[in-house]
Amino acid sequence: MNLQLDSKIESINGVGPKMALKLNRLGIDKIVDLFYFFPRKYSDYTDITKIADIPEVLRERQDNVLTIKGTLLGIANKRTRRRGFTVTEGVLADDSGSLKVVWFNQPYLGKMFKAGSRLVLNGRVNFDSFSNSYVIESPTRANQPKIQPIYPEISGISSFYISKLFEHAKPLMDQIEEYLPREILVKNKLPGIREAILNIHLPKNSDLLDKARERLAFDELFFISLKSVLAKAKIEKETAPSIKTDINSLREIIGQLPFALTSDQRKAVWQIIKDIEKNVPMNRLLNGDVGSGKTLVAALAAFSVGERGLKTIFMAPTEILANQHCQTFATLFGENEVGIMTASKKSIPSEAKYIIGTHALIQKGISFEDVGLVIVDEQHRFGVKQRAALSNVGCSQKMHPHFLSMTATPIPRTLHLALFGDLDVSVIVEKPANRKEIITRFVGNYHRDKAYDFIKKQIESGRQAFVICPLIEESGELSVKGEIKSLNSKLFTLNLLEEERKSVKAEYEKLQKIFPDYSIAMLHGKMKAKEKDEIMTRFSENKVKILVSTSVVEVGVDIPNASVMIIEDADRFGLAQIHQFRGRVGRGEHQSYCFLFSNSKNERTISRLENLEKVSDGFKLAEIDLETRGPGAIFGLEQSGLLDLKMASISDRILIEKATESAKEVASEVDKYPLLKKKLGQFLINKHLE
Q1: Cβ distance 63 to 42 under 8 Å?
Q2: Among 85, 362, 522, 571, fewest CB within 10 Å belongs to which?
Q3: pLDDT of 456-480, one tens digit each?
Q4: Residues 78, 58 contacting (CB under 8 angstroms)
Q5: Is 42 exposed, middle or buried (0-12, 13-18, 19+ CB in 10 A)?
Q6: Cβ contacts of residue 70 below 8 Å, gap of 6+?
Q7: What is the average per-residue pLDDT within 378-388?
Q8: pTM, whole model, 2 decimals?
Q9: Higher model confidence: residue 248 or residue 258?
């Protein structure tokens, strides 16, 4: 059969219909998919340690995983008292000494290996005080020094099987065409795509593996950057209304505020009004820390537009947030100038300049005239089609509204470059002078009763409390998956025992017994939107004293009367996410508190959480998250699709800057490179980039 890259995976000899279905589950539908199905890690059998050097090497290493090459002097199976349990023991020797080898519950190894077998073993080496010698436990093995790729596995599809498939498909690599311009490869000292793919699957040494990783990571970052650069270039060809701000009117309304703007707010307002003066559509991200006053900045921008006779459309992700924004705008500008459109409410006065709503704003048949500005709150929570639909609300073929998106998620500069290159960015870090610092404490479980007593006193003084849990129910609507090596050395997925984790439903029932005199409600993502809004309305009206919730309260909810936040299993969340949670309190005049609980005994985990006691700057916390846990800890689990990069690290500032610079250089001439344009199209489809 004449195989092609686009041939179905079952075209390879030995891949039947059942195996093809399993491979499809891994994302391998065509042969080309196999080339881009990258190993998740590698076992390095090339860095050989002499047995006599083990003590010295272990003193210098952070881990105790070593590779030993030698001859097997003997091997035998031993039965333990535990029924059906076998220990296989052997002795491996090189020219410097000998080492005990132990495998658990793999009796077939006693028959597979004989005295005199040459082995390369990789595993944890520990000192056994009982025998007064070193032992390598449950090692993996190879027949020669090499770097062995380890692929993601599912039942019936092993890493070894994927390696064999790649060997069968390898001759088709000649069909892979280079899509990056030669000048980019030369400038950035990158290998060709065929060489990179070959060395990511069959690396001959660690240097070639590192270069292959760099090339494939560069590609991912390059295409993200190129998408952003092209999007920005397209926007700059469009026409928008040039809106000259009446500075005196703006100063007058600012002067009527009961507080002074922070310098960050003033700077952001100035950047926006300078943008909307241009006849090119503004495309700006307003990235403000929790409680920094983003909504007021957006309102002042909308005021500038409204003073020139144009409308502002403001879309929020939930009905309760839309209602909050509506109330803010009505307080500033008067009820007759503010309209609202949600699933349950539509009220738009004829003279309304500011129309606030949810997805209802982009329903089929809905249109608005004379729109000068579109604002999207928590922009990362909307899909690209939704944002595009809103941007087109009220725009004629000749004129597009200006676009302002907002987020309270602190985004480090590295992430700005990598993910939001088409947006100009305004950052608000400063908090208004009247905001009190939220007192945050990492609390041991032995102080739990004291925390409950504290909540009781706060409620008795008129306050309210949040309790945040990572799970919906004990059966595990959200589970933590980890990999352990079982006794037979196969990898298994372990769902952590959920009874050790706090769930909303169980905590709700427990707190009802602890606080029988107070109204308690629970909130989670599986509830219908109407039900969630009703609960939040009752909470905002102080009809609910304690709200037990999952992360659905992370962003935007404004309850000035709430003064206590308890976060259960805090180790399950990123620092940036916890910072969002605690931002739900401290929004009124009352001193507020955030208590972090965790059963973790890990010193690094505890140290990470203790940062929240000392750091109140969300951007600093996001930087810590980015360095220690990756971007998922900043955006939360729902953002995993946006950041689903196989090779690139969003923390690699140098490579991001190289990729961004290269994307800018090639963007104006992209039509000269048809293979590059084709690959960009495939990348955008596969990544669902926002």
Answers
A1: no
A2: 85
A3: 999 999 999 999 998 887 554 443 3
A4: no
A5: middle
A6: 51, 92, 93, 94, 98, 99, 118, 119
A7: 59
A8: 0.74
A9: 248
State how far Cα 514 lies from the chain centre.
36
d(CA 444, CA 500): 15
Structure tokens that stand for 166 in this block: 């790649």
Question: What pLDDT does 655 receive?
Answer: 92
* Cα 313 to Cα 296: distance, rounded to the nearest angstrom: 15
Instruction: Please name the residue that has the structure tokens 């500033």.
Output: 332
Asked if residues 59 and 70 have their Cβ atoms less than 8 Å apart, the reply is no
Residue type, 677: K
Q: What are phi and psi of 355, to 5 degrees?
A: -115, 115
The CA-CA-CA angle for residues 53, 58, 63, to 5°, reads 140
| pLDDT of the residue at 490 | 29
CA dihedral 118, 123, 125, 130 (to 10 degrees): -80
What's the one-letter identity of residue 493?
T
Would you state the structure tokens that stand for residue 52, as one six-digit string? 């006599």
Report in angstroms the alpha-carbon separations of 415 from 219, 224, 649.
Answer: 16, 11, 10
DSSP 372: E
Which residue, among 147, 163, 138, 152, has the nearest Cα to 27 in the 3D structure?
Answer: 152
Rounded to 10 deg, the angle between the 618-628 and 575-582 helix axes is 150
Phi then psi for residue 30, to 5 deg, are -115, 165
C-alpha to C-alpha distances, 527 to 14, 314, 472, 531, 532, nearest whole angstrom: 47, 25, 11, 6, 6
Asked if residue 16 has pLDDT above 60, the reply is: yes
Structure tokens at 46: 């090339």
199-224 pLDDT tens trace: 999 999 999 999 999 999 999 999 98
Other C-beta atoms within 10 Å of 243: how many? Answer: 24
Predicted local confidence at residue 410, as pLDDT: 80
Strand intervals (E) in 259-299: 283-288
State mean pLDDT over 265-277.
Answer: 97
Alpha-carbon span 338 to 348, nearest angstrom: 7
Query: What is the maximum span of the chain, computed from C-alpha positions, in angstroms?
Result: 92
Distance (Å, whole) CA 264 – CA 245: 19
At residue 439, the 3 state secondary structure works out as strand
Look up residue 260 and give its DSSP letter.
P
| Domains observed in the chain | 1-45+162-176 (no CATH), 47-145 (2.40.50.140), 264-277+292-407 (3.40.50.300), 439-615 (3.40.50.300)
The answer to whether 555 and 409 are in contact (CB under 8 A) is yes
Q: Residue 471 carries which DSSP code?
A: B
Is the pLDDT at 643 greater than 60? The verdict is no
Q: Mean pLDDT across the chain, nearest whole number? A: 86
CB atoms within 10 A of CB 29: 15
Task: Quickly tell me which residue has 């922009």 as its tokens.
Answer: 379
